[in-house]
Recover the amino acids of this structure.
């Protein structure tokens, strides 16, 4: 199966998911939504409770042994922490089927890290999901390694389709994806937290302030997605000359809002590159 992705009787390739955490579980759910039979998916997770929960919820096959999970699998999804990846690869590489396609969701590690440890010519696709994928509202990128073809990218996109938006980017831009999508949910949560606290400071009950902040941000995001207008146009529409919103935005700008965002983005990129260099050895 050099560049051709073979399939089982279901018409879909058999998949082994190594790691049953939040992202691993989300991808299993996405595959089931996309039509993968439970019998075509094996999840390997050391923790019994989590593994059994996934087996029960999605009717997949479960095992504690990653090497056992990948036997016969045509696609292997690596959903473990970057710090664990070298050890995991060492433990399963001898059990991989010829021509297996490898998808990895680990941050920081380049495709070359896997290609050096996997059989020569193994296609690797890097996948960068974010946490809203759990509720089908994710923003995920796919990036091909040296041996990944159009067919492999289409397969990755099919697996990920139920998680939300999926885009392709060159691997050298994956740190930028981390800034805009991978880490950005945490930035969003921090802003919602700050807005909630501002409401409390000015007299609102905490629960009321939190509900108002959540709904406002959810509604604003939906308006942006559905209106066809740019963020700049929508912002101007809310910011009447001499009004309270414009006063707030001007104060935020004066306090360095753009600089704060840029500083965070730069720190995220630098840390991603630093972590990749450390783990790649």
């Amino acid at each position: 199966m050099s560049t051709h992705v073979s399939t089982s009787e279901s018409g879909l390739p058999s998949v082994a998911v190594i790691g049953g955490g939040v992202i691993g579980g989300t991808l299993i759910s996405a595959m089931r939504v996309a039509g993968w039979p439970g019998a075509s998916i094996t999840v390997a997770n050391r923790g019994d409770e989590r593994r059994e929960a996934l087996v029960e919820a999605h009717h997949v096959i479960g095992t504690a042994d990653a090497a056992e999970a990948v036997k016969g699998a045509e696609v292997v999804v690596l959903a473990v922490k970057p710090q664990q990846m070298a050890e995991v690869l060492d433990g399963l590489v001898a059990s991989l089927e010829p021509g297996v396609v490898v998808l990895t969701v680990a941050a920081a590690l380049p495709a070359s890290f896997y290609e050096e440890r996997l059989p020569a010519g193994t296609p690797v696709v890097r996948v960068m999901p974010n946490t809203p994928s759990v509720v089908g509202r994710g923003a995920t990128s796919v990036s091909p390694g040296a041996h990944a073809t159009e067919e492999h990218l289409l397969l990755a996109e099919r697996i990920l389709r139920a998680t939300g938006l999926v885009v392709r980017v060159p691997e050298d831009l994956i740190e930028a994806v981390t800034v805009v999508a991978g880490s950005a949910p945490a930035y969003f949560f921090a802003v919602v937290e700050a807005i909630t606290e501002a409401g409390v400071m000015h007299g609102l009950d905490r629960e009321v302030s939190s509900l108002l902040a959540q709904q406002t941000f959810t509604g604003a995001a939906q308006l942006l997605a559905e209106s066809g207008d740019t963020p700049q146009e929508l912002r101007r529409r809310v910011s009447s000359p001499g009004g309270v919103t414009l006063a707030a935005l001007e104060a935020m700008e004066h306090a360095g809002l753009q600089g704060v965002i840029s500083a965070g983005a730069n720190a995220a990129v630098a840390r991603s590159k630093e972590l990749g260099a450390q783990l790649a050895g």
Observations:
- Strands lie at 15-18, 41-44, 61-63, 75-78, 101-104, 124-128, 138-144, 164-168.
